[in-house]
Amino acid sequence: MVIAALLSLALVAGLAVAGFLYATGRFGIGPLSAADKDAADAIVDGVEKPAWADDDQVECAVDDLVHEYRSEGLQDRGLVEYDGGSWAYNGQWRGDDAVAFNESLLDCDDDWAKAVGKEWGITDTECLDGVDTAALGAFFAQESFTLTDGEESVEEDSAEAVAELDECYLEEPDIPRGVARAAYRSLEVVFTEPVKTSPGETVISTGGEGSWTPLSGDTVTVDTEEGGVRRCVEAQAVTTLPWGSTAEKVTEICGTSQPKRIFWKRPAKKCTQQPGCYSFQLHYEGFKDYASITARYTSDGGGCMATSGRCSDTVTVVPGGKGTIVTWSFPRSYRGDFRASVGKLFDEVPN
C-alpha cells in the first residue's frame, strides 16, 4: 500500500509539473509563452518576406519555427537575442532553419504555386506545383538570407530546385529577328521584339563572342569604309529565367551598304561661260575617305570636246566620302550623250 501511495503521489506530481509546463509553454510544451510570442513578433517584424508571400504566411511560418525551438532555442541558434528588456531579430540564419522557414512559407499557402508563378510570370503552374518544396525552400533561403552555416548543403538542395524548374520551363529563345537595310556607307539592322517562349526576360545583344552589347533601341548600325560592302551583324538572344538559368540563340543578319555612285546635277549658280549655256556638276558618293578617283568623259562615245583638251579629272575623296569632281558647261545647242565614268560607274548628262 505504501508503494501504491508513493506511485500515486509521483503521478500526481508529474501531472502537475506537466500541466505547469503546458500552461506556461516551458521547454516546448503547450502553447507559446510570453517570451516566445515576443520573439515571434520580433522575427515577423524584422524578416524580409519574399514578394510572393503575404503577412499571414510569414506569421504562419514563424509560428512553426517558434513552436519548434521556442525563444531560448532560437537565441541559442543565433536568430534572435534578448537584451534584458525585449527580443530582437538579428537576421542570421542557420542553413537548416532558413530552409525550414521558407518551406513553411510555401506550405502555409494552399496555392503557393499560383503565388510564386504570378511573381515569376508563369501562367501554367502545374509543373511548378510538382517541384519539391524542401528544395524550393533551399533556393529561397540561399537567395534571400544571410546564412551562418550549412551553406554547402543549402546550395546543393537549391541546385536541385533549379534543375527541376529548368526541366519545367527552360526553353531556347526565339532566334533574333531583324531586317537588314542598306544605308550610306553602313548597314542598318532593325530588330523586332523577341517572341516570348518561356518565363523571364529575353535580351537581344550584338557584337559577337566576348563583346556582346545589349541592344539599345531597335536598330544597330555597322559602318563600312565605302559603299557596296557586305557586312553581317551577329545577334544573340538570351532568356534569363527568374531563378537565374539562361538559354541563348545566336544568328547572323547580313546585308550590303548603299552602293557608290556618281551623278550629274545642276549647280546652284547658272552658267556664265556664254549666253544660253548650261552647266552640270559631277558628284560622287560612298567612296572611301582619301581614296584617289579618276573621272573620264566622252561625248557620243568619242572625245569630250573640252576646250582644254583634257577628258579626265583625278580627285582625292574628302572625309565623309562624298563631294564634287567637276563642273562642266555646255553650249545651248548641245544635245549629245555626254557621259562621265569612274571605274565601272557612269552617268550621262540629262540634257
- Please write the string of helix (H) and strand (E) elements: HHHEEEHHHHEHEEEEEEEEEEEEEE
Give the overall form: rod-shaped
Strand order within the widest beta sheet: 8-7-10-11
Helix count, DSSP H or I runs of 4 or more residues: 8
Descriptive account of the structure:
- The structure is a single chain.
- With 351 residues, this protein is an alpha+beta fold.
- It folds into four domains: 1-31; 33-169, no CATH class; 178-255, Immunoglobulin-like (Sandwich); 261-348, Immunoglobulin-like (Sandwich), CATH 2.60.40.10.
- It is 33% helix and 29% strand.
- It contains eight helices and 18 strands.
- The strands form six sheets. It has a four-stranded antiparallel β-sheet, with no helix packed on it. A four-stranded antiparallel β-sheet has the order 15-14-17-18, with no helix packed on it.
- A hairpin with a 5-residue loop joins strand 10 (230-240) and strand 11 (246-256).
- The longest helix has 23 residues, at 2-24.
- The model is unreliable at 1-28 (pLDDT under 50).
Main attributes?
Immunoglobulin-like, 4-stranded antiparallel β-sheet, disordered N terminus, alpha+beta, 351 residues, 8 helices, single chain
